[in-house]
C-alpha cells in the first residue's frame, strides 16, 4: 500500500473528533431508557461518536486505524465527551444545537472518509460508500450499544442520503480534476445543508409499505373496470 | 502477504453479491416491525446481505476488502436490492424462493470464504470458521441493524450447521488434494442441500434447556433405584 | 509493520481463550430469554467470549487476527464451550465462580491487548484503549448477539473501569522501563482485584441522572441564600 500523498491535517481530524464527542455525549445525556446510562456509558458514546467513523473508514480501507496512532485522538474524544456531559444540563433544550452539530460532524466524517478512500486508490463508487459508512458508522455503533433502533434504517430525515450526496459531490469534483481540499469543502457543505434542510422541512423518504399500499390501491381501483359487476 | 494464486472469478463473486442483494431486499420488504423501513433501509439490507459476507471474510483475513476494489460489487448489490424491492409485491407469498435463494447464497459465501482463507494460508479449522462467518455474517449484520433477534443464535433450522458442513467438506476435499474449484462446487452443494432439507423436514438442534431437563429427568428417575424408599 | 519482538506465549493465550470459552458457555446456559438458545447458540457465545477479545485487538491494530493463524485457538474455544455447557447444570448456582472466572479473563485479555499494542508501537493512551476493547469486546459481542442490553453501557459494577485500571497500570509500568512480562502480571492482578472488590462491595459509578439531580438540588438549595425571600 503506497503512502498517501494527501494527509488530512491533524487539527481538522481533531475538530471532527471533538465535535463528534460533544454531540455523542449530549445525545447520551438526554437518553432516558428503561436502563440508565452511567458516566462511563455517556463517555463511551462520546468516544464512539468521535472516533467510530474514523475506525470504520480505516477498517474498510484495510489500513491500521489512524485514530490509534497518536495520543491526541482519544484525549480529544474523552475531553469532548466530558465537556458534552457538563453542558448537557444547560443545553438539554437547545435541540437545534445538537442537530446542527450532528449535520457538520457527518459532513466532516463523510468528506474525510471519501477523500482518504480516493487517495488510497479506491474507485468512485466504493469511495462514496466508505465516506457514507464513516459518516453514519458512529451513529450505528451508538444505537447498537444503547439498544436503540438503528436510526438510519427507519423512516427518518434523509440522514444517510445527506451523507451520500456530500460524498458523491466530493468524489465527482475530485474526478473532474478539482483540488481534493476544495472538493472536501464542497462535500461537507452539501451534506450539512441537505441534512439541515431535511430537518427544517421534515423531509423523509417514502416508506416501502406506503408505496406497496399505493400500488395495491391502484390495482384494486382497476378491478371494477376490468371485471364490471353490474 | 503473498498474492493469492487462486482468484474467485469476478462473475461468480458478482452472482453471489446479486443473489444476496435480492434476497436481502425481499426479506426486508416483508418486514413489519413497530418501526417501518423506508426505501433506504431496504436498500441497506440488500447491500449488507450482498456484500456483508465478503467484507467480514476479508476483515478476518486481514486483507483490504475485495468488494471495495472495484465499482462492480456495489453497483450489483444496489441494482439487486432495487430488483428485490420491485419484485417484493409479486414474490411476497413465494416463500420457498426466498428460502431457496438464501440456501444458495450462504453456500456461495461459505465456499468463497473457506477457499480464500485456504489460499491465503490459513489452517483447516480457521478456514472453515472464516467460511461460516462469511456465510452467516450478512444475516447477523441484517438482524442487528433491523433490531431483530439474531437468527443463528436461536432454535432454528440448522442454518450455521449447514454452512459449517459445506465449508468443512470443501476444506477436507482440498486437503485431500482435490482441485479447489471442484472442492468449492462440493461445498456449495453440501450447504444448499442440508439447508433445504432442514427447512423441508423442519429439523433443528435440541435446545440447551430441553437437554438439561432430560438430564434432570434421568437423574430423578435414577433416585428410586439408588435409594429405594420402600 | 515490524515483526513484534515480544510474543504472547501460546499456552497463555490458549488459557485465556479456554477460560473465556467456559465463562461464555456458563453465562449463555443460564440465559432464559423469550427466545431460547440452542446448543449452537451456547457454543457461539463460548467462541465469542474466548476469541472475541483477540479478534477485536488485532482488527484495531491492523494485523491479521492471531487467533486464526493456528488450529489451536478455535479447537480450545470449542472444547471449552463444550465443557462449560456440560458443567452448567452443576455450576448453575455457583455464581461466584462465573464472576471470578470473568474477572481473570478480562484481566488477561486486557493485558494481552495492551502489551501487544505497545509492542506494535502504539502510544500509551491508544494502547490502553486497545486493551480495554480487548477485555470488554467479547462481552459486547455476546450482548449484541443475544439481544441483551450491552452490560458495560449501563449502571454496573465498574466492569470497564477495572479493565482500564489494569491496562493503565501495565502501560505505566512498561513506560517506566519494567519488563513487559512483569508489567502484564501487574495489569492482570489490578483488573482482577478491582473487579472482584467492585462485585463484593457492590460498587458502581454514579448515574448521569443522579448527578444532574444533585446539581439541581445544590442550585435550588443555594437560591434562598442569594435571593432571601423574607
Quick take:
Chain A is mostly helical and 230 residues long.
Structural summary, described in words:
Chains A, B, C: Keywords: Cell membrane, Membrane, Transmembrane, Transmembrane helix. Chains A, B, C: It is found in: Cell membrane. Chains A, B, C: It is a multi-pass membrane protein. The structure is a homotrimer of 230-residue chains. The first copy, chain A, has one domain (10-204). The first copy, chain A, has eight helices and no strands. Chain A is globular. Chain A has 230 residues and is mostly helical. The first copy, chain A, is 74% helix and 0% strand. Chains in contact: A-B, A-C, B-C. The interface between A and C is medium-sized, with 35 and 34 residues.
What topology emerges from the helices and strands here?
Three copies of one chain form a homotrimer.
Chain A: H1 10-29, H2 39-61, H3 71-91, H4 95-120, H5 124-146, H6 159-175, H7 180-200, H8 208-226
Helix pairs in contact in A: 1-2, 1-3, 1-4, 2-3, 2-4, 2-5, 4-5, 4-6, 4-7, 5-6, 6-7
**Helix-residue proportion of chain A:** over 70%
Total of helices of chain A: 8
Q: How many β-strand stretches of chain A?
A: 0
Structural class of chain A: mainly alpha
The global form of chain A is globular
Q: Termini separation of chain A (Å)?
A: 74 Å
Oligomer: homotrimer
Jot down its keywords.
homotrimer, transmembrane (chains A, B, C), Gly_transporter (chains A, B, C), mainly alpha, disordered C terminus, 230 residues
